[in-house]
Each structure stands twice: as structure tokens, then as C-alpha cells.
Amino acid sequence: MGTGQWLVGPSCRSARRRRSAALPFNSAKADIKFRCYHRPDGLAGVFILCENNPHAFMKGTTLFYVGALLVAALLAIAVRGHRPSHTEPAAAAQPAQPVAANVPVFPPMPVPVQRVQNDVGSNAVVTPVAEVPTNHADDLRTRLEKRQALMSRLRDWAATDPEGALAWVQAMTPGDERDDALQAVCFGAARKDPAHALEMAQALQEPDAVIENLVQQWAGSDLPSALVWANNLPAGSQRDQLFQRAAFVLSQSDPVNAAGLILEQIPPGPVQDEAVMAVVHQWGNQNLVAAADWVKNFPDPLRERALQELEGIQQFREALSHP
Predict the structure, then answer these.
(1) How far apart are CA 111 and CA 260, in angstroms?
(2) Which of 40, 87, 118, 191 could be joined to 159 by an S-S link, Cβ 3.0–4.6 Å?
(3) Which of 30, 61, 82 finishes a domain?
(4) Do residues 40 and 2 touch, judged by C-beta distance below 8 A?
(5) Predicted local distance difference test score (pLDDT) of residue 28
(6) E strands of 214-270, at which residues?
(7) Which stretches of the chain score pLDDT less than 70?
(8) Are 227 and 179 in a shared domain?
(9) What is the spatial distance between Cα 80 and Cα 243, in angstroms, rounded to a whole number?
(10) d(CA 241, CA 248)
(11) Of all helices (H) and strands (E), which one includes residue 34?
(12) Whole-angstrom Cα distance, residue 219 to residue 227?
């Protein structure tokens, strides 16, 4: 029966049979008992006892042994199937739960950032900027094209009827488009009557840049009249700027007289220096030696600046001649 203690199962029954002397038990009656035993580790077995004649059992025939063993095996199987295990009871069956598919969940992708080159050359991280929708970009392009077309029509209108064009523009809603339209009227009127266009611009209090561009446009077609008009203005920064524009136009064809105009009409100062440098550039492109002769009489630091300008022109010419 092996080692360990055997426990008699509560559900086992004793089978008692008495055999007569006719059975091969050495003419002695034998009480045969079949008992089921259970070990603490869950094993079960059948122990067969011969109470009256212990030795008679050992002398039984082979058929009896086989039959007894079969009966014992069947009893053991029956007892093991009905007796609960000494181990922990199994958990109550749970209703089947649907098993989720093993779908991999990926973390959200980081928002890409844009890197721009700043003034000092370092990479700066900026927040992402949403792309402009195509329909919005098309709308901006359409609006720009419409504005350009409007300005072109206003210039043409003002060239023949400046007062009518001006009245129509003044009825527009105040804003950037109206401001551009007023300038367009002035430039259109300047095609036929530059003096009237300048008076209109002054009355509308247009920026100084508009006045300067009108004078430069006038000087390109009628320099003497433009100089007369500018000369009638009171002394001041605006008058100096207008003579600078006129001198630039003159320097493209006559740098010598342009240089004299600057020295006569513009007092020394930043405006005169810039006008001189414009003439030096034009004169150097036409006659480098003559421009150098004029520059050598300049006071420092203007002379040094003018010489550098002429050296740059000479190096540019040499680079073109020796590619």
C-alpha cells in the first residue's frame, strides 16, 4: 500500500462475503472485506482483508485474484469520482467573457515643430503654423488681383478726369484700399499735369514719399519745370529731399551738373551726403577717372566712403572682363 497513512473514506462501504469450504480457501471459511482508503494527498486504494483465514487468500486461484483486483479497481474509481478533493475547491465557473483582440495601441505622434533661421543664424523653435487653406489663398489672390485692377483703372481715369476720379474715391469706405486709391489718382493725374497732381497730393496730405515720387516722375519728363516747382518750396527737409530726387535723375545723363545742383541746393548734412553718393555711383559707371577726381576733394569721412564706392565699381568691371 506504500508509505503514508491511509484514511478510510466516509463514502466507502464494506463488502462482506462468506465463502463455503467448497471454494479453494483451504476448506476454511474466510471473511473477505473490501475497504477503500484515501491518503491526504488525494490517492485512493482498496485494501482486501481476509479476517477468518489470512493465509487462505494467498492460496486462492489466479482467477480469484484477477476478479478481486478488478472489483477493487472499480470501487476505487467510483470512490475517487464521487469524493471531493482535499485541495482548495475550484472557483465557481465564471461566464465566458469576450476576449479583446490584442490590438497594439501606439502613443500619439509628436507635433512636428518648425525651425527657422533668425538674424544671428541660430535655429529657433517656433510653434507650428497651420497651413493656409487653398480656398483661402485663392480668395486672397483674387482680392489682390481685383485691387490691382482697380488701381489701374483709377490711374487711367485720373489721367483724363482727375476731379471725377477723385470724387469717386473719396466716397469709398475709409481704409487701406481707399488710401491706395487716392495715391493712384494722384499718379494718374501726373501723366497730364504733374503740377496739379502735386497740388492734389498736398491737399490730401499724402505722405512725403508720394510727393517725392511725383517730383522724380516729373523730373524724368520735364526736369526744368520740376526744379522750378521744388525751388518755390520753403527751405526744409522736404525741399532737400525733392532736390535729391531731381539730382539723381539728372546724374543718369549729366553727372557733372547733378553734382553742382547738389552743392548749390542742398545744405551739408545727411541728405546732401546721400545725394552725393547717388551721383558718385552714376558718375563712376560712366567715367571712373572723372568721378575719382571729384571725390578726392571731399572731406572725410565722405571722401573715404566715396572712394570705396568707386573701388567697388572697378572690381566689378574687372570681374566682368576676367570671368
Answers:
(1) 64
(2) 191
(3) 82
(4) no
(5) 42
(6) none
(7) 1-68, 71-73, 75-134, 323
(8) no
(9) 123
(10) 11
(11) strand 31-38
(12) 7
